[in-house]
Design brief:
This protein has 489 residues and is mainly α. The chain has two domains: 12-218, Terpene synthase, N-terminal domain (Glycosyltransferase), CATH 1.50.10.130; 245-415 and 447-486, Orthogonal Bundle (Farnesyl Diphosphate Synthase). Helices cover 69% and strands 0% of the residues. The protein has helices at residues 12-17, 23-45, 50-62, 70-83, 85-91, 95-107, 135-145, 152-168, 174-185, 193-208, 214-244, 246-249, 257-267, 274-297, 300-312, 323-347, 352-374, 381-391, 406-413, 419-442, 449-460, 462-466, 475-486. α6 (95-107) runs parallel beside α7, α14 packs antiparallel against α16 (323-347) and α19 (406-413) crosses α20 (419-442). Mean pLDDT is 89; it is low at 1-11 and 17-22.
C-alpha cells in the first residue's frame, strides 16, 4: 500500500524517500512513517466516542498532519453534524466539548450558529464567572472566538477568555502557563499553522516526554520530510534566481530569496503543491522587485514607461526601456508565460490574459503611489485603501524610499486623533476584515478547502510581514524561516 492508497494521504514519504540514495535507511523511514500513520488512523476511526474522535481531529490539525487523514476527518465531521449538529452542542454544558465542536464544524464549512454559547451566559449576555476555573474550556473558547463573523457573543467570548487566561498564568504549572501565554500571543485561527504546529508538538513532547504516541512520532517524521522537501524546492528557486541575474541587474532591489519562498510555503503548505510553491515564489519575488523599482529606483518618467510596457505586454525585444527595467520586464515576461503554458498543459486552460491584467493592475497601483510621493500628496483614507488592496502595501524596509501609510492618511483626515487612536482604528479595520473573511470561508462551500486555506493563510501572513522592530527588521518572520526551513530556533 502506498501513501495515496492510505485514505487520502499525500505521497510525501514516497516522493522523498524513494529518491534517496540510501535505500536501506529510506525503506526503514518509510516503513516507520506508514506504521505510525496506520496507528493514528486506527485511533481516529476507532475512537470510543465522537467526542474522542473530535479531540483526535483537533490534535491532528494542531500538529499539522490532518492533511494525511483528510477523507477520514471529513467523514467524521459530516457524520457528527448529521447525527448531532447544533442540537448536541446546544444541550451540552461542557464548555470544552461545545467550543471544540463549534470550531471544527465552522472550519469544515458548516454554518453553525453562535447562539449555542447563550447556554453559558446570564440574562445580560455575560459569560458566567464560574467558567473561569475551566482552563481547558476557556482555552477552547478563546480559539473559537476568533471564528467571529460579526457576532456579539463571540466578541464577549474573546474578551472573557483573554481576561481570565491572563489572570490564570501565575497560578498554572510551567508547561500550561507557557501554552496559555503562547495562545494569547498567537491565536490559533490567526496564526501561521506551520508555526503553531511546531509549538504544539514541542508542548506535547514536554508533557509526555518519552511516552510520545504514534501521533507525535508521525508529526516529527512529517515535519522532517516536509523540511527536506522545502530545502529541495529552495534549491530550485535559488538556481532560477542565480540564472536570472536579476540581483546583478537590480542592485538596489531586495534580495530575499528565503523570505519569498517561505511566503509560498505559508500560502500552500500541502506537500502535493510542490511545483506550485516554486512558481508562486517566483511571482512573489517579482512583486518585491517591481515594488522596489517604483519606490527607490525609477524616476517618474521611467516608471510611466515601465507601466506602459507592462500594460501592453509586448515582446521584450520590441520595447524600449532603461536597461535595468528591461531586464526585469524580460524576466517577468518569460516566467509569466512559462507558468501560463504549464497551467495550460496540466489543466487545459491558458490563464495568460488574466495574468497579464493582474501585473498591469499591480503596476498601475504602484504608479499611483509613485505620483503621490513625488507630489508629496497624502490621499484620503478611502482612496489609499482602494489602491492599497491592489498594491498590497508592501513596506520598503532598510531603503531610502517612503511608501506613506494609512495611519498618516487617517491622522491628516482626523487631526484631533493621536497616533494611538489611529492605530486602534487600524486594528478595528483588521478585525472587521477578518470577520468578512470568516463569513466567506465558513458560511458556504462554494470554494475548495485548499482555496479557503490559501485565503486564510494570506491573511495570516500579514502580522509577520509587518512586525518590524526598531532596526526595521522582521524578527518574527526570521524566526519562521529558521524554524520551518532549517529546523533551528
Amino acid at each position: 500500500m502506498n501513501l495515496k492508497e492510505a485514505s487520502g494521504a499525500r505521497p510525501l514519504a514516497t516522493l522523498l524517500l524513494h529518491t534517496d540514495k540510501q535505500e536501506q535507511a529510506s525503506d526503514l523511514t518509510y516503513n516507520k512513517y506508514m506504521e505510525s500513520s496506520t496507528k493514528v488512523r486506527r485511533t481516529l476511526t476507532h475512537a470510543n466516542s465522537q467526542e474522542e474522535a473530535l479531540m483526535t481531529i483537533d490534535s491532528l490539525k494542531r500538529l499539522g498532519i490532518d492533511y494525511i487523514f483528510r477523507q477520514e476527518i471529513t467523514s467524521i465531521i459530516d457524520s457528527f453534524y448529521v447525527r448531532h449538529g447544533e442540537t448536541y452542542m446546544g444541550h451540552s454544558r461542557d464548555l470544552f466539548q461545545v467550543t471544540l465542536a463549534f470550531r471544527l464544524l465552522r472550519e469544515a464549512g458548516y454554518d453553525v450558529s453562535s447562539d449555542i454559547f447563550d447556554r453559558f451566559t446570564d440574562s445580560r449576555g455575560e459569560f458566567n464567572p464560574s467558567l473561569s476555573q475551566d482552563i481547558r474550556g476557556i482555552l477552547s473558547l478563546h480559539d473559537a472566538s476568533y471564528l467571529n463573523k460579526g457576532e456579539d457573543v463571540l466578541y464577549k467570548a474573546n474578551e472573557f477568555a483573554a481576561k481570565h487566561l491572563k489572570s490564570s498564568i501565575s497560578n498554572l504549572e510551567p508547561n500550561l502557563a507557557a501554552l496559555v501565554t503562547h495562545t494569547l500571543d498567537h491565536p490559533y485561527h490567526r496564526s501561521l499553522q506551520q508555526y503553531k504546529a511546531c509549538y504544539h508538538l514541542s508542548y506535547r513532547q514536554g508533557c509526555f516526554g518519552r511516552n510520545s504516541s504514534a501521533m507525535e512520532e508521525l508529526a516529527v517524521m512529517d515535519f522532517n520530510l516536509n523540511q527536506l522537501l522545502h530545502q529541495k524546492e529552495l534549491e530550485q528557486i535559488a538556481s532560477w534566481w542565480k540564472n536570472s541575474r536579476l540581483a546583478e541587474e537590480l542592485p538596489l532591489a531586495r534580495d530575499q530569496l528565503q523570505k519569498w519562498y517561505l511566503l509560498s510555503t505559508i500560502l500552500l503548505p500541502d506537500p502535493q503543491f510542490s511545483e506550485y510553491r516554486i512558481q508562486l515564489a517566483k511571482a512573489i519575488a517579482f512583486i518585491y522587485l517591481i515594488d522596489d523599482i517604483y519606490d527607490v529606483m525609477g524616476s517618474l518618467d521611467e516608471l510611466s514607461l515601465f507601466t506602459e510596457a507592462i500594460t501592453k505586454w509586448e515582446h521584450p525585444d520590441i520595447i524600449s526601456l532603461p536597461h535595468y527595467m528591461k531586464a526585469c520586464y524580460k524576466a517577468l515576461y518569460d516566467v509569466t508565460n512559462q507558468i501560463a503554458e504549464r497551467i495550460s498543459q496540466v489543466h487545459g486552460w491558458n490563464p495568460i490574459n488574466s495574468l497579464k491584467k493582474s501585473w498591469a493592475k499591480l503596476c498601475n497601483a504602484f504608479m499611483v503611489e509613485a505620483r503621490w510621493f513625488t507630489a508629496k500628496q497624502v490621499p484620503m483614507t478611502s482612496t489609499y485603501l482602494k489602491n492599497g488592496v491592489i498594491s498590497t502595501g508592501l513596506h520598503d524596509e532598510n531603503q531610502e524610499g517612503f511608501d506613506g501609510s494609512y495611519v498618516d492618511c487617517y491622522m491628516k483626515e482626523n487631526p484631533q486623533c493621536s497616533v494611538d487612536d489611529a492605530r486602534e482604528h487600524v486594528m478595528d479595520l483588521i478585525s472587521k476584515t477578518w470577520e468578512a473573511l470568516n463569513k466567506e470561508c465558513f458560511s458556504s462551500r462554494l470554494f475548495s478547502p485548499d482555496f479557503i486555506q490559501a485565503s486564510l493563510n494570506s491573511a495570516r501572513m500579514v502580522r509577520p510581514l509587518y512586525s518590524y522592530d526598531d532596526q526595521q527588521k522582521l524578527p518574527m518572520l526570521e524566526e519562521y524561516i529558521k524554524l520551518l526551513l532549517f529546523g533551528k530556533k
